Structure formats: structure tokens, C-alpha cells
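During the second year of the project, the team shifted from modelling isolated chains to modelling whole assemblies. The rationale, set out in the original proposal, was that interfaces cannot be judged from single-chain predictions alone. As a representative example for this report, we include one of the complexes processed in the last quarter. Its constituent sequences, exactly as entered into the pipeline, are reproduced here:
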Amino acid sequence: MAHRAAQQPQQPQQQRRYDRQLRIWGDAGQSALRAASLCAISATAAAAEAIKNLVLPAIGALTLVDGTDLRQLPPTAHFFLSSPQRPHNRAHALVAALHALNSDVRTSFIPHHAHEFIDSVSAAYAFVLRFSLVLVADMPASHTLVRFLSQAAFRANVPLVLLRCHGMIGYLRVQAPTLCVLNARQDDLPPDLCIHAPFSHLQALADATDLNAISDTTQLTHVPFVIILTKALQLFRAQNDQKLPASPQQNKLFENIVRSLRPSHCPADALNFEEALKRSNLRLCYSQVNHIPPSVQAVLSHPNADPRTSTAFSVQLESPNHHHVFPQIVHYTKPRPAAHRIAEQQARFWLIAAAVNMFVNEAGRLPVRGSLPDMTADTESYLNLQRIYSEKAHKDAKRVLHFVHAIVDERGLDLDVDDALVISFCTNVHAIRVHSTSSISDELDDWNVDAFKEAAMLEGGLDPSGTGKASPYYPILRAVDLFHRANGRYPGSDTVVKDNDIALMHGYVATVKEQLGLQSNTGLWRHETEEMVRYANTELHNVAAFMGGIAAQEITKILTQQFVPLDNTLIVNMAEQSSITFAA
Amino acid sequence: MLPTSDDLQVIYGPNAAERVAKSSVLVVGAGGVGCELLKNLATAGFLRITVIDLDTIDVSNLNRQFLFRRQHVGKSKAIEAANAISKFAPDAQIRPMMANVRDNTFDVTFFRQFTLVCNALDNLEARRHVNRMCLAADVPLIESGSTGYNGQASVIAKGVECYDCVQRLPQKTYAVCTIRSTPDKPVHCIVWAKYLFDLLFGPDDDANVLKDLDLNRSPTPAQPKQNGEAQHTASAENGHSEPLDKHQNGQSPVPDSANGKHFEEQKQTDPRKRLRYSSDDTAHIFAERVAHRVFVADIEAQRAMEDLWRQRSPPILFDVTSAAKKEPVSLEKVDLLSQSVWDADHSAAVFMAVLRDIINHRVSEIGSLTFDKDDNHAMLFVAAAANLRANAYGVPLQSPFATKGIAGNIVHAIATTNAMVGGIIVLEALKIATSDGKIDKCVTTFVSQAPRGSRVKTILCPEMLTKPNPKCFVCSNGQPHVSVDLDQFTLKQFREYVLKKKLSMKEPEVYVANNILYETYHDLDEDDVEMYQSNCNKTLAKLNVENGTQLTISDFKQNLKCTIHISHTENLLLDKPIQERFVLDGNVPVPTPQADSNDHDSAEDVDADEVVEVGEERQIADGVADKSAERLGPGAREINSRERAQPDGEVANAHVPSKDRERDAGTKRPLEESNAREESQKKKARS
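Output from the structure prediction step:
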């Protein structure tokens, strides 16, 4: 083997190492991951698992903040901290262990508790600005540190992720004022063939095709449905004031036109005509302005995508108003020059979205994506059609690029945009998304009761006889936070007063029920409350491994700007493998 | 934080830690899921673990298989994983075995020693085998898999659905004619290039679809349909092809006139010469001969078959030798993982360079090489040759990255999903270990990339374990039904293709009434051995198997016994290679090449034009995921059916969540969208 390997031409090790993930998120996703700098506060087992799952695929940089002295913890079976020669500080020990997994990642740590030096919103603001994303583990949401971080990160547009494990219960919360998705990767979306706004080559091809004149039935049954629909729509428009079918009745009319195009000598079961009929409704699913899918329209109508008035094209950040002194970051590896910020990625996203807006204004449609679905056609006409779509896509992307440059010039922006990014933006323009979440700080004071109740009701979590649900644990976690604030510890963590804790917790849960407008004296969530006290603050490793997996998955989605991110809270009950998500 | 033993007690009751520590666990596979699983088992307090994996560590494993470091590349996965776990848990007894779980060593007695078995496998055959062994040994099995952002874990034991209860979709195959003469998708060109690699450098194999190229015979005269019937899509044209056997048997290798004429002009190549390398070739002469015969002479011969080009453009000739000279390449600098497309000239340069390089550096291996996506010569060859083929046929050219994905059936695999699946497996393992091997609390769990579900949106979906399929021949005395042409199929073919390949049996014995047709005892006397050998070469009809005969099959290795009903159908599936000329539990297709893929009545009834198998290689990796399949038995297609690739390997097999959940579509190979033209899922509730 070794002999053979030596004689083979060698491939770059880096790429081979990351091959399997490049096949998911591509070079662009990988570069985004490489450019990111993650800060993790508190190196619990779940956080360690999450970070491990980000270090392996090579996130750019990692800073771990934890002041825990491992000698003062009871002995635990922490997989990454098991080495007898480990350093005493937990952050240091974990960084050392993770560095061994992948030396491509720049690692550093701060051997102090975050709350010791992040003691105000402005301190938190100055701190979070250094990172692409902040992960906080094992911290009650009501902890002042979380409140400071939440407010600061929201203002600085730095995504914040909270991760908690209590026995069999896992909690994950994502906070981001805006999350821009370059490719939601929802492959079930219908292809946008621009039949409703045919470009000149498509129209020319349709015009040049005289179905009645094709005497060869083989040829006739292989005319692509795209051509048939283009012709049919032209006829419909001519009869209907140049308008598109807009009602079910009109659609029937349109279908009849499609039928009428089939020449009499055409076999009744011609698949291409069947496809045309089947698709005749397709374009109507984009019922919004300019036949743009609602999720894409949401991006284009966003104030940030306005070419003239948007303030999102540059990363304008207030500089921290105080000079905060943070503890020295200890660099385990060579430090990285500067953290890449999600805000910069987003500035480019909004700039291109604004350019697409200008394109839509001019062309009356989205840029052509250039890909064709399978269809009944002979090879030659399929290839020909593919060629004109791909050429048109190229042309459209160039036009969008032109608008990008125009905006940059007009607004005097200092932002370089890669041509390849513009092209890929246009290719996946149907799959761009924008999401935003509420802030955790706001959620603490005024939470989305309706969203929770809806999710809980669907799950059956408001039914006192239901068991094994996940939703009850959200209000119970809120009660846990109330308990923690009052007692400085988690319920059940002191085994001597466990029964007392249960009684206290029932009281806090009753308070939360009142907030929800539920009767506070019923047996609802009684069992779950007792379970939570029983779990105390136990961190089970396989629960930690699972939650670490999900947290890393969500962080990867945010950093690569691919796939649909979690909105915004996930509660998992690992005792029954049940879970819910809702927008808190 | 509490110490582990107390943690367990809190959740699983008194003595939980002791019970867990006493349990003995078998982990099959130390890949992506396997690494996570081993770590989680050890941290949960499992102290007696046996891990089996045949594979060695590759660089491309390091992005997720975190028990391995760069210095471990090339070493045994089982051994290195055990080392890593032992360091963490010095008290644990971790027993690594670098072996194939299908080896005879691992018999029912071996499996009986475990409290539970966890599968972290990547291939159907091994999964089915472990399933049978666990049922035979009466040991609970946790089955798992992951691909991209999707994963799952489930529990199998007596009384619930077993792995064989759900019929798995067969691998995608292509018509010989599509590969040999009328490719119209990149995958056709890539499959062709893999055959060409094996033809040139592999063992001499008469069954190679391109064998005629080696002997310089005329290519298979593929026959397009004569009538004007619609060919149903541009990508799946006629499924009519000549069976290969016809050309292998007897026809003399006469160079056809078109070829002969051209070769006269090409002095450096000898038309009578085989295409394969011979010791009097120089690397240069060999490369030019291959380039000429494959991309000039053969294309001319194809063009001469005018019937083929009535409805499509004929392929074009391309002078690879001259094109290669325009911009010569240095192979060391060619980036096989580049995501940009190679043009025809560059492909030509790589093609010629790699042919020469193989002769110059690996001549001793010629005759023993087979395509391997991790062999850079093989991958360079296939990437270049497939593009040149595509160039000739007007098929879009590909980047080497995309080609590798298709050629190696590579499926994406990432750490996060494996972490989730690993967590869930151990959750199930803890339930089993703390309840004396009972599985009544166990569930099947699916994890997905984005919150899904029409009601409760979530990324974790539990499902009750379901009842066994009464038609399952493994766990429920089901009796499979096989239709075959008894006058053509030999006993050997029946054993190999139906029993071993299709039904994943190991050493099946075949009985008809009281008559033994084939037996496998190791102490058979010579006469018996001779008789069984001669039986093997007889057709089933000659062995008195008739329409309606019930064969008794027994496989002692898998502790399996079942009855198979035989039906005779004359000239069944002649358009397919001999390996596929039978139908298992399905309607026998009407002999028309126009089988519509939407109307399959059985898993065997794949598109008639899909005959050449892809994805020969099998590798150990992360496990399966999602896809699924059809229940045994005609007309019983109840679950979603959609083909999925398996991490690092072949087709995955597992079923998707039923009920009202939507399948999320974000799991296709996103970088290969052009190839991901899978038909949209056929959804059917299992209600």
C-alpha cells in the first residue's frame, strides 16, 4: 500500500481531509467556516462536544472562556479532559485536547469566568465585536451575563447561541437580529423557467417552432414543454390584455389553450404535452409581485435591500464607548489577524440583494437560474434549451454584477464583492432567505406566549394527561431560572433539601403558568417539574453529545449561510426523544 | 456536575451503573458514527466493548472520525479507536477486531455473548447479515445511519420489525446500450470511464461492457426502437439493448471495415493488437493506441450505425493525442478536488499523461488494478476519460470533484449528524442495558437538517417500533416468490444472484422436496462435492425445478431457513444482464422497454434501460440513512420510496419517518445538482 501510495500523484491533504463536507457546503461554505472566529463561554461537556464538531471541519479560530479549576470539580468522565497531564484550567485543558484534533484551527483561551470581566452591556459589546459568533453554555438565561451578552450581541449583529443540558432535557436558543441565507437548499422548489416573462432567445425559439408544421410525430412528441407553454402563454396574453392568468377560471382557459396547441396528428398520449398541462399551473404558485416566491420577496422588500436607502452595505458599528480592559487572551496557537464578521458577509448579501432588486425593476423577473429540469425532449433540443438558459443566466448575472458596481460607485462603498459570489447568488436566487429572531433579553421580560402555546398545544404539552412531551420543559426552564436567581443554585442540586426544592419549583412553575394565562393550581406539568428537580443540573454525556451535535449544526448553518437555520428555540426531551421548536 | 455512576442512577434507577458496566456491547463499524458511539458508550459507563472494523484510516475520515489523527492514516480503524477509548477509560476492556463481520468466526455463539449489538455500518450486505445473526442469537440490535444532515437510529429484536422486513431498493443500473453507444448524462460517461479503466488495467474480464474495444471488434449494435413511439424523456431513452452474452460467445473478432480503413492511416497503431498493454509497447505507443481506438476509431464505428442517429446527433471525433499536446500537464499539479470544470483539451492532456504514468510507474500492477476512487491514477483517468466521452456526445463536462462524487458514490458526511446519531444510539443502549435487555421503551428516531413536520416542527422525530412484516422471510416465516426462466438459469446463478446477492445469504443450501440440490457441509465426501458441482452448472429445469416448485433454502451461517416459491417465465428480462434476469416478489414485467419508473410494482422492476451496475465498491463508513423502500410482497409498497446514497459507499437502506412528516429535500448531493434529478418522492402514509 505504502509503496503504491508513493507512486501515485499526490493530492492536497487539506482538500482530501475535508472532502466529505465540501460535498455538502462547497468551497464557499468552507471559506466562510475558515474565516469565522468562535467564542465559547463555559467549557461544559455539551460545549466541548459542540466545539469538537466545529474544530473537526476546521472553523477558523476558537477562543474558549472558562475560569473553572478542574481540581475543584468532582471527578467526571469528561472525554476530552481525561488526560492525566491536563492543565488545571478547564478552558486551557479543552483547548489543548481540541488542538490535537485539528491543528488547522487557531485556538486561544481566557482562563477566567466571563462574568468577572463582562460586567455591563458596553463591556459585552466591546467583547463580542471580536468574534463571528458567541456560544454560551450552561448558563441560566436570566443570568446577568446572558442579558449583557444578549443585548450587546443583538446590537453588534453577532449571532449568539445558548446551550443548556439538564439531565435528559436539552435547550438550544439562537439569537440573531438578521440571518441571511445564501442557499436554503430546499431542492423541492419548482424550477423557475421564466415562461411568464420569456427572454428573447426563449421567445425566438418558441416563435420558430410551428407545432402544426411538424409532420414527423416523433419530432412533435419531443418538443420540450417549455416551448409549448411559452407559445400558449403568448396566445393567452394576446387574448387577455397582455395579462397573465390570475384566477382559477383564467387558468382553466390557459389550460385549454395548451390543449388546443396539440396538433390533430399528434398521438394522444404525447408526454411532452402532458408535461405542459401538468406544469401549466406551476408558474401560478408564485402569486406575488413579479411572480417572485414569497420567501425571496421577503429579502428583496427588506429595507436593507433598498439600493438607495439601505444602511446595510457597510459594517457601521458604534465604537465601544468605554475602554474595557479584558483579561489577556492566551494564544495556544499563532493568533489570527482579525476576526471575520457575519456582518461583513451580510453587507455583501444585502448589496447583491439590492442589485437584484434593480434587476427585477428593469427586467420584471428574477435573474434566470440556468438549470433545467428533466423533460421529454430529444437530446438536441434539450441541449439547445439548456444552452440558451445557461447563456441567459450568465447574462443576467453580469447585469446584476453591473448593478452591484453601480451601487458601490454611487454610494461610495468600501466593499469588494467577488464575481463568483454574485454568480452563485443569482444561480440560487430562488433559495435566498432572511430570518430574524427576538433577543434573549427581551424574551426574559416579555416572551412570545402565543408562539409557545401554539407549539405546546400541537405537541399535546398543555394536556395534563400527556406524558413524554418536550414543550413543558420550556416554562419549567423559566421556573428553573427564577429559582436560580433567588437561590444562586439549580433546583435539586442540594440533595439534602430536594423535597423543599420541589415545593419551591411548583411555586415558580405556577408563576409561569399565570404568565401563560393557564390555571396555576392544576396538575399540569407537575410530573415534569419533579423530573427536572430530580435531574438537578446533571450533564449526561450522551445527551451532551447529542445537544453538542445540534448546536454545532446550527452554528455551521449560520456561518456558512446555507440551509434553513433554527427559529429560534429547541427543547429536547431525551427521555422520550421528543422535541419542539418555536419562535420564543 | 455529578460523577457518571450517580448520573445514571438519577435517570435509570438504582444499580443502573452496575448493570451498564456489566453489559457487553458489540460495535460493528468504527467510522463516523462508530467513533461517536464508542466515545459515548465509554462515557456512559459501558466497560466491555468489542469493536469490529475491516477498514483502515483515510485522510478523508479525519473531518469527523475524531478518534483518529493524521499519524494514524493507513492503520486499522478498530485498533486505533480501541486505543483512543482505552486511554480515556483505562478500566474498560475494549477488544478491537480488524475483520469483516461476515467472517465465519463471528457465528451465532459469538453474537450470543453480547448484551446488545450496535451497527454503525455503511453497507446493506453487512447490515442484513448482522440483523440475521442478532435475531438468531436473540440479542437486541441498534441499527443506525447518517448521510449529510440526516440520520437515524432504531432498535431491532424479536417481535418488532427487523432490517429485512423492509425491502431495500436495488442499486441504480444502466442499459448496456446507453453506456456503450448513447450516453446522454454525465453519469453514463463516468460509468463508461470506470469500465474502460478496468478494461485496460484490471483482470481480463469477458463480462466488461467494453470488451469489444479491447479485441477491436465492432461495438455492440445497439438497436433503437423502430416504431415512432415516444421515448419518454431525454435522459431515459430506449431501454433496448442486446444482451452481452450474445457477443461474448463465439463471434470472431473481425475488425470492421470502418475501423480497418482508419487504422491504415494510423501507422503507429496496430489494428490487430489488443487495446491492453503488452510488454512490447512503450508508454507512448500504448497511450496513443488507447486514445485513437477509443476516441476516434470507436466513435467512427458508432457513427456508422446510422439507426442510432436518426433522432439524435452522432458523436464527434476528437483527436486526443494532438489536443493533449496543446498544453501538457504535470500530473502532480493536477488538482483532483478542483470544483472547476476541465475542458476537453485539458482532459486530453490529463488522459495521455495518466496513461503514460501508469505504464511508467505501475506496470507490475497492470492486470490487477480495479477502479478505486482513492487511487489517484484511477481517479485522474476516469475524470479525464469521462469528460472526453462527454465531449464526444455533447454531454456537459464535469469538474473532477463532481466526477469523483459520482464515480465513487461519495456521499457527504459530517461530524454534527454523527454526533447526534451517536448520542441517540447510546440512549437506546442505556434503555436496553438497564432493563435486562428489554426493548419496550425503545423507539426509532430520525434527525433532520431543518425543522420538519406539518404540525410540530422539530428536528428530532421519534417513532414507535413497528410490528414485523408478516411476509419477511427472515423473522416471520415469509415465503419469497421468485420468477425466473428455468431453462436458462443454472443452480449456480440462482445461488449467486438470487440467494447471495439479492437476499444477502452467506452459504445457502438448496433442497427440493427430499432431494438435496446443494449442500455446504465441510466434511462432504468427494462424490457429493462432485455432484453438487455438476448440479451447479445445470439449469434449474434440468434439476426438475418447475413452475410452482417450492425450494427449501437453509443457511446455517445465518441460522436461516425459508421456502421459496418458483415460477417459470420464458425469456424473462432478456434485456438485462444475466445477474438480473429474475423477479423477486413482484409482478413479472410485461416485455416492453418502456417501463415507466412511476409504476414499479416491485423493487426489481427498475427502468428497463438501467442495466449496468454502478457502485461496485463498498466501503466502511458512517452508516446509512434514509431511504427506503418497499415492503416485501406484491403491491405492498407502503412507505416512501426514494433512492439514497450511503455515506462513502453504496445505496443506503433505512426507512424514512412516516405519518405526516414531510421529507426534507435538502439532503441531495448539493454539488451535483445536475445529477440529482431524482424523481420527487412518492409519498404514501403508512396508515
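Chain B touches chain A through 101 residues (CB under 8 Å). The radius of gyration of chain B is 26 Å.
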